[in-house]
Design a protein that fits this description.
CATH topology of the largest domain in chain B: Aminopeptidase
CATH superfamily of the largest domain in chain A: Zn peptidases
Distance between the termini of chain B: 28 Å
Strand content of chain A: 25-35%
Shape of chain A: globular
Number of domains of chain B: 2
Bound molecules: zinc ion
GO molecular function, one term (chain A): metal ion binding
Shape of chain B: globular
Number of domains of chain A: 2
Order of helices and strands of chain A: EEEHEHHEEHEHEHEEEEEEEEE
Distance between the termini of chain A: 28 Å
Number of strands of chain B: 20
Helix content of chain B: 10-25%
CATH superfamily of the largest domain in chain B: Zn peptidases
Number of strands of chain A: 17
Radius of gyration of chain A: 21 Å
Cofactor (chain A): Zn(2+)
CATH class of the largest domain in chain A: Alpha Beta
Largest sheet of chain A: 13 strands, mixed
Largest sheet of chain B: 9 strands, mixed
Number of helices of chain B: 6
Structural class of chain A: alpha/beta
Strand order of the largest sheet of chain B: 1-2-5-3-6-10-8-9-12
Helix content of chain A: 10-25%
CATH architecture of the largest domain in chain B: 3-Layer(aba) Sandwich
Order of helices and strands of chain B: EEEHEEHHEEEHEHEHEEEEEEEEEE
GO molecular function (chain B): hydrolase activity, acting on ester bonds; metal ion binding
CATH topology of the largest domain in chain A: Aminopeptidase
Oligomer: heterodimer
Protein name (chain A): Succinylglutamate desuccinylase
Largest interface: A-B, 51 and 46 residues
Keywords (chain A): Hydrolase, Metal-binding, Zinc
Strand content of chain B: 25-35%
Chain lengths: 347, 327
């Protein structure tokens, strides 16, 4: 059942709405309500396809085996539809990041009202999954990110989500105005998924996450599927800030990664890529890994400034007898937003 | 004294340098820092700082015989260097707003390094000014914004000759802005909102130029003839704010000018339907008070901010958020 949670008239005689689709059990009281949100950033498309897959799957299930669909799932695939339609990360015309407008305001410009309407509409949900892609610069393996204050409640859910990594990071006041923080703060568990890259689709990631969401829906008793029908999950690696190694550009130029490093186990000393200078025909920086680990973030956009994030490595768990490694960024107060994600990459 | 506060390598061309121009007085007066050009399209503030630089240069060379510099004045007129050169508000490469990147990080992304560099270069100040303009969509009369001002802040603010003082609360919305971190570091932050983006308002700059000289006299940065008597500006907070939102979408034609004192019910403008030409809405003042700002970009969405009005009486709805995207 399609619904509109906010409709705004625009100057040129047209209008837009924030639309949702509600799938509810055919009869009886619903067990629980889950909400899947995506498209808060207009350049992130991975969540749209995931919602398509889940929507289709649940509709089929409800039709063929109505007895196993017992709850309610709300889909909000294209929250910032103006941004999505014009490839704007932010809300066009107003030029603001919707995920920095929460809790929003009924009396305010349109993005503030959109935030307010979405948050209001999500009240009463038992679980919210907010799916983000990365920005247009960085490719990310499927991961869930959470602030450590909410980890006791979120971690058990995240482990069922079939992502590769769960990144528990230091709590940051900078994220206070995001949807997820506002939901978690008000007692509604909200998982933030980050995967793929802006402006593109990685269909396999959506399929991977779909399996996880099906598990979550069973956990909430929205679905009543027998254990043997459930997809097999991969257990995510749970990481803290001190297990992530950042590669930041030390030069400005053109970044060319080595082939097949993304998603691969990297050995200490391996070359990840180089920053080249076309004018001089020389390499400005050859980036080698100082440690072993899994490369879960890789820059896809080749133009880099000094400081641009090139890659991230999740380190191999240290041997028990080894001294604690000294991490370049371990002590920083801004670990997750370190790479400018506050404004660009991160949820 | 011209000095680089930050140098960054830019791909495929010459490095970018953020400069400060510092004037050190003979006495041990306070240190005042003024920054502008955080947003590349806000020009009036840059021009204001350039006027101050020329004045201080004359003071230093003895060409302003009535003035001597007691303290130190540090001017950082351009923060978003390519933004100014390309006429874009945000950082041109990735579209980030530098005033959402504070406190910054010296090993982080470019705009974080810039934020870190600017904060480090100003954090030893006693007074610090962040000069902005409104964007092109909204005309605002010049004003001062302050976080929970102290008594001393309120003593000095009137010398600036601003039309009003907007008191803000330290909420998470501001945590990534420079002024927030100044306040947290014990500096008195003054946010000057000065005219409309992309152009220079000479009268406004002249007023603020005189105002800043008087401010520096009153603060003991500068010695000289007594400043003009301070103009106590009205001060407003959240509870005295009325936001006027459009009920229709279309072409907005204002009939009132920012700065006017309005009576409740007075016309502010009308919204015309683009297809039919019919007046869809007559926009009226929700209360009596000062029309502080009014929409200048003519096309509006439904429920969009058209005007901001301050009243002496408390706004009973009281929840209006004074925040919006500028600055
Ligand atoms: Zn500004």
């Amino acid at each position: 059942m399609e619904q509109k949670i906010l409709t705004i008239r625009m100057p040129a005689q047209d209008q837009f709405s924030i639309r949702k689709n509600v799938l509810r059990a055919g009869q009886g009281k619903t067990t629980a309500r889950a909400a899947i949100v995506s498209g808060i950033h207009g350049d992130e498309l991975e969540g749209l396809y995931t919602i398509y897959l889940l929507n289709r799957y649940l509709q089929e299930l409800r039709e063929k085996r109505p007895e196993v669909f017992r709850g309610q799932v709300d889909f909000y695939p294209t929250v910032n539809s103006l941004g999505l339609g014009s490839l704007n990360r932010s809300w066009p015309f107003f030029n603001v990041d919707l995920n920095r407008q929460f809790p929003g305001n009924r009396e305010g410009h349109v993005p503030l009202q959109a935030a307010h309407a979405l948050l209001e509409d999500l009240k009463g949900a038992d679980l919210v999954v907010d799916i983000h892609a990365s920005n247009k610069f960085l490719l990310e393996m499927p991961q869930i990110r959470m602030q450590e204050v909410y980890a006791p409640r979120l971690l058990p859910l995240a482990k069922k989500s079939n992502v590769d990594l769960v990144w528990v990071h230091c709590s940051s006041s900078i994220l206070e105005t995001t949807l997820a923080t506002n939901l978690n703060e008000s007692g509604i568990p909200a998982l933030v998924v980050e995967m793929g890259i802006g402006q593109r689709l990685n269909p396999l990631y959506s399929e991977q996450l779909l399996q996880g969401i099906i598990h979550l829906l069973c956990h909430l008793e929205i679905l009543d599927l027998p254990e043997e029908e459930l997809p097999v999950l991969c257990a995510p690696r749970v990481i803290g800030d001190n297990e992530v190694w950042y590669f930041n550009a030390e030069a400005s130029g053109l970044f060319v990664p080595e082939p097949n490093v993304f998603g691969a186990w990297i050995k200490e000393g391996d070359i990840i890529g180089r920053i080249v200078d076309p004018l001089k025909g020389s390499d400005l920086q050859v980036i080698t890994s100082p440690r072993d680990g899994l490369l879960f973030t890789l820059r896809e956009h080749p133009v880099v400034y000094e400081g641009s994030l090139l890659a991230r490595l999740v380190l191999q768990p240290p041997e028990a007898e080894e001294p604690a490694p000294q991490f370049r960024h371990a002590a920083d107060s801004l670990p997750v937003i370190q790479a400018g994600e506050e404004a660009r990459g991160d949820a | 004294m011209h000095e680089a506060i930050l140098e960054l390598n830019i791909p495929f061309r010459e490095p970018m340098v953020i400069y400060k121009n510092e004037f050190r007085g003979s006495g041990d007066g306070p240190l005042i820092s003024l920054v502008s050009g955080m947003h590349g399209d806000e020009i009036s503030g840059m021009y204001l700082l350039s006027r101050l630089a020329a004045f201080l240069d004359r003071v230093e060379r003895g060409l302003e015989p009535f003035y001597t510099l007691e303290g130190t004045v540090r001017l950082i007129p351009v923060i978003n260097v390519p933004g100014v050169n390309f006429a874009t508000r945000n950082w041109p490469f990735d579209g980030t707003d530098i005033n959402r990147m504070f406190p910054g990080y010296d090993l982080g992304e470019t705009t974080q390094r810039i934020a870190d560099g600017v904060l480090r270069a100003t954090v030893d100040s006693h007074y610090a000014f962040d000069v902005h303009g409104s964007n092109e969509q909204f005309f605002e009369i010049p004003h001062l914004r302050m976080f929970s001002p102290t008594e001393e802040d309120l003593r000095l603010a009137p010398y600036l000759r601003c039309r009003y003082l907007l008191r803000r609360e330290l909420t998470p919305l501001y945590k990534t802005q420079l002024s927030y971190h100044w306040k947290e570091s014990g500096i008195s932050p003054y946010i000057l909102m000065l005219g409309v983006a992309r152009r220079i308002d000479d009268d406004l700059v002249e007023t603020l130029y005189q105002g800043l000289i008087d401010f520096m006299l009153a603060a003991g940065v500068l010695l000289g003839p007594p400043p003009a008597p301070p103009l106590q500006p009205p001060s407003f907070g959240r509870k005295h704010t009325h936001l006027v939102l459009s009920r229709a979408a279309g072409i907005f034609r204002p009939t009132a000018a920012a700065g006017a004192m309005l009576r409740k019910g007075e016309m502010l403008g009308q919204i015309v339907n683009v297809l039919s030409g019919q007046v869809e809405e007559e926009v009226r003042a929700p209360a009596s008070g000062l029309l502080a700002s009014i929409r200048s970009y003519p096309l509006v969405y439904e429920k969009e901010l058209l005007a901001r009005l301050f009243t002496a009486e408390e706004n009973p709805s009281g929840t209006a958020d004074v925040w919006y995207q500028e600055q």
